[in-house]
Design a protein that fits this description.
By secondary structure, the protein is α/β, with parallel strands linked by helices. Helix content is 42%, strand content 14%. The longest helix has 29 residues, at 4-32. Pfam families: IRX15_IRX15L_GXM.
Length: 273
């Protein structure tokens, strides 16, 4: 059996490998924009690494903490970000992996929503760049209410497609920071709030709301990821409100859904038949 130290080393190595691959793709993409005449007339120059990538590589090279997600889970999301970035990326939760998510969305907007104010300050002190756009949020649900909330979510008004700010559904997060409602999110990662016991807020409302804002966007698709689907709440709520028919991948404890806009047909069922 591998030791914890060896596992941490392997994860660090693989994370660095992902960043190097991402960096190679970034530099290749950048060089492809230059015209042939520019290539002939210009002298060879060194393309600098973007600061967000540089900071991330340095941070993870010296990190002694195992990331919250496995390399397999991270790679699923990184492939989507490589295809979509720069994009609008929303993350429920703030952690040691936040700098990585920001770097993988280089040039885009990455916003974090975190329930613990003290933890936000801790991350800001250690990694100012990672917490550059982080907002404190409060939840009024409890894991102990999950079964009741699941039943409520299956009935009107929760099945109605409206702006979540106007929703009368108990699961709709109507008091998030203004930016949440003003931006159309291309990618959403639900890795918070906490849900380890009955008193914790759980991810019921975050999962439901992520699905509804994805359907409410004007056009296009939203990629939604839910972590910790080995737990009952994350498993059942993601299947119910993000839909088996929209599921694209599942790797370890991470589930990936691609949800299309429903604005052209607001009376359509939440999930495809």
């Amino acid at each position: 059996m591998k030791s914890k130290t060896q596992k941490t080393f392997n994860l660090k190595f693989l994370l660095l490998l992902i960043f190097l691959i991402f960096l190679f793709c970034f530099l290749s993409k950048s060089s492809s924009f230059s015209s042939p005449s520019e290539d002939i007339n210009s002298s060879p120059s060194c393309t600098k690494i973007p600061p967000s990538l540089e900071n991330a590589v340095i941070y993870y090279a010296t990190l002694n903490t195992t990331p919250q997600q496995t390399i397999g889970e991270i790679s699923i999301a990184s492939q989507v970000l490589q295809r979509k970035s720069p994009c609008n990326f929303l993350v429920f939760g703030l952690g040691y992996d936040s700098l990585m998510w920001s770097a993988l969305n280089h040039g885009g907007r990455t916003v974090f929503l975190e329930e613990d104010e003290k933890w936000i300050e801790t991350v800001r002190q250690r990694l100012p760049a990672a917490a550059a756009e982080t907002y404190h949020v409060k939840y009024d649900t409890r894991v102990s209410e999950a079964e009741q909330l699941l039943e409520l979510g299956r009935r009107p008004p929760c099945t109605a497609l409206v702006d979540v700010r106007d929703s009368e559904c108990r699961l709709a997060l109507r008091e998030l920071p203004r930016v949440f409602y003003e931006v159309e999110w291309d990618v959403i990662m639900v890795d918070a709030p906490t849900g380890f016991n009955g008193a914790a807020p759980g991810r019921m409302a975050a999962i439901y709301t992520a699905g509804m804002v994805a359907r409410w966007r004007k056009e296009g698709e939203t990629d939604v990821f839910v972590h910790d689907v080995d737990r009952i709440v994350e498993d059942r709520f993601s299947r119910e409100f993000l839909c088996e028919g929209y599921k694209k991948h599942e790797e370890g404890r991470l589930r990936h859904f691609t949800i299309p806009s429903h604005r052209a047909n607001v009376d359509a069922p939440i999930c495809p038949s």
